[in-house]
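Entry 12.
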Amino acid sequence: MNAHDSVPNTDPQQRLGKPAGGWRAALYAIIFESDTPKGRAFDLALIGAILLSVLVVVLSSVKPIADAYGDWLHAGEWCFTILFTIEYIARCLCVQRPLVYARSFFGVIDLLSILPSYVSLFVPAAHVVLGVRILRLLRIFRILKLTLYIQEYSMLGDALLASRRKIFVFLSVVFLIVFLLGSVMYVVEGPANGYTSIPTAVYWAISTMTTVGFGDLVPKTDIGRTIASFMMLLGWGILAVPTGIISSEITHQRGQRLLDLRVCPNCHSTGHDAAARYCKDCGTALTS
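Predicted 3D structure (tokens):
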């Protein structure tokens, strides 16, 4: 089974377990099913709350605004924390397998978006101010909750997952190139020109290969400049490789999903060819 075969198994109804009835089923329909009017309204309201909560965190980092409206920002922060806490508890209650949700990617993101606020209550701010700031910064994870409501994020995630081996091989080749050329530059330029070690030279090679070029290290010799020019030109071509890999996979994912949408009205099978007029399993005429 390849990565494409596992796409249908990402249905939350299968992974989390949709309740058969009662208030849990009604709550599940609102929270997890965005194709209903109540579900869409819930998603839109939650998206607005996420954006506003991130705005509060950002504004609290601006000193003039924090000095003038610190109390309001603090109150707003706790309002959003309580709101997202209720949402997290509701998500755990309305599924049959709450541990599956809690260990999932979005479950961890939901927990990270609220946990720092409560942890910071028990951290003595007078002694570990920096630690509290780091915990407050983790609230930015709320913005990642937006990925749950945009289908294109899911498609991009599937494409990255399916391309992970190709990307790993590509990154391995890139690392090999920058390590070898960085080592060569260490020998060519030497400590006298700032290349004091092989790790320093590899750092220069990475910044050159990615065409960033901070300018803190520059070659002084003609051979070094030649190697640097070659790496700059090579960087243009290398940066295009992962883009092509991911774009190709996204195109495949899009085509696969379009094929999966063609459902036989008789046996309900999917995965028909784009030009197919009849069901591949029972022979019934396809409506679209």
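Annotation: The longest helix spans residues 222-260. Residues 147 and 153 are 6 Å apart (CA to CA).
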